[in-house]
Prior knowledge:
Beta Polymerase, domain 2; five-stranded mixed β-sheet; alpha+beta; 20% strand
Amino acid sequence: MSSTKEQNEESKNLADKIVDICEDVKAVDIRVYDMTESSSVADFYIICTGNSEPHLKAIGDKLDREMRDADKAASVIDGGASSQWIVMDFHSAIVHVMHPDARSYYNLESLWSNGQVSPEKLPWECDEREILTSERPSRRPDF
């Protein structure tokens, strides 16, 4: 079994490879957040921007292809260029490829910049209108 130090090094190498691929396809505003101390979901979160739907698709496709070629395929890919947000789960690194409008709107950086909020504490299970507006339905206890 690998030591924690070896696992952290493997995760860091994976994140570095992902960043290199993103840079190759001209992703912009690439940010890497080390969450090794604050998240049990992944060690690194990577956010980058594609300036158009074709650019988002190119970034996602290149990441998918090159990581598969390196035998590091994503376990899950969600979203697409038309949704303005692609999420790719590489186990110890999660990549968010976002359109500038979506990145500005969701502002993930404000949550993760200092490892302040773990992804486990975000309200992922909610109604669509809760995501898109500030509306929150009242919560009644079930009896």
